[in-house]
Design brief:
Elements: H1 3-6, E1 7-16, H2 20-31, E2 34-42, E3 46-54, E4 57-63, H3 66-74, E5 80-86, H4 90-99, E6 113-115, E7 123-129, E8 135-141, E9 155-162, H5 165-173, E10 178-185, E11 192-199, E12 202-208, H6 211-219, E13 225-232, H7 235-244, E14 255-257, E15 264-270, E16 276-282
Parallel strand pairs: 1-4, 5-8, 9-12, 13-16
Antiparallel strand pairs: 1-13, 2-3, 3-4, 5-9, 6-7, 7-8, 10-11, 11-12, 14-15, 15-16
Length: 283
């Protein structure tokens, strides 16, 4: 079976942290996430992991030990640039977030921002800092009928900044991601092309950087948003599919961890801009 057919959807977004207790409390208190599990595992030494959920969005917060923990504290923005949550009542949710002490990110200096060249009728959004400096967006797509939904309803999209849009599309196209829509952000140095890629309802916002933004991107290393995990039917079939597609493998064998009820099996590949993608199967 092809890798495309093995993938059944998104599993979680992995975030590296140097202070797990702080971050778990922040996501629970500020955004209403529910903790599914928290435990210590043996992975590069002592590693503590917490799984949090809000709607269909699951965060995997990972706190390593020793030197890696100190490195985690220093991580900034990576190729995975930010994650976005749907907020049908955007103005209300943005005001509530600021009341709870969330700090607006410099990418939206004026607060609520109108992106007229995205989506069928434009997109509105506002970016905030997370507890360790990661960037999260609350957004509303104006063409969508939310049918009276309120609150934060989970995934909107995950943003990936890249050097070459076509190269990225080819890479994720082998996984079955298809272009849902296209748009752009105008800048004094030229337009940033944006394509939205979708697979099983999960959306990636791919931004092809230009000018000084491109030069800044080239300097980025591994970020606090560490990886995206895609759920698969059979991890062995997915592993074989990744090798056949020529994906650079971070793991040369399938790994296991005692998470959730019976554990998980997983492996990582590296994307064309150095981003990490995990494939995971629940045992």
């Amino acid at each position: 079976m092809s890798l495309d057919n093995e993938i059944t959807g998104v599993d979680h977004l992995g975030i590296l942290t140097g202070d797990l207790k702080r971050d778990v409390a922040w996501y629970e208190e500020k955004l209403g996430f529910e903790k599914l599990q928290q435990r210590i595992v043996v992975m590069n030494g002592r590693t503590e992991i917490a799984l949090l959920r809000k709607g269909d969005l699951v965060l995997e917060l990972v706190e390593p030990a020793g030197r890696l923990k100190e490195e985690a504290k220093l991580r900034g923005a990576g190729k995975w640039d930010h994650f976005a949550m749907e907020a049908p009542e955007l103005a209300k949710e943005a005001a509530l977030a600021e009341e709870k002490g969330l700090k607006v990110h410099p990418s939206t200096p004026d607060g609520l921002t109108w992106y007229e060249h995205l989506g069928e009728k434009g997109v509105r959004g506002i970016n905030f800092y997370g507890p360790g400096g990661e960037v999260l967006e609350l957004c509303r797509e104006e063409a969508v009928d939310y049918h009276g939904k309120t609150g934060l309803s989970g995934w909107s999209h995950l943003a990936l900044k890249v050097e070459n849009l076509e190269r990225t599309e080819a890479f994720y196209g082998k996984m079955g991601f298809q272009v849902r829509s296209k748009g752009y952000l105008p800048t004094p140095e030229g337009d940033i092309r944006i394509h939205y890629l979708e697979k099983c309802g999960f959306v990636m916002e791919v931004l092809e950087m230009t000018g000084s933004g491109l030069e800044e991107l080239k300097q980025r290393k591994e970020g606090r948003l560490d990886h995206i995990a895609l759920r698969v039917r059979d991890i062995r079939e997915a592993f074989d599919g990744a090798r056949k597609n020529g994906y650079p493998l971070l793991n040369h064998t399938i790994q296991e961890l005692p998470l959730l009820e019976k554990g998980i099996r997983f492996f990582f590949v590296i994307g064309p801009d150095g981003e990490k993608v995990e494939f995971v199967e629940k045992i």
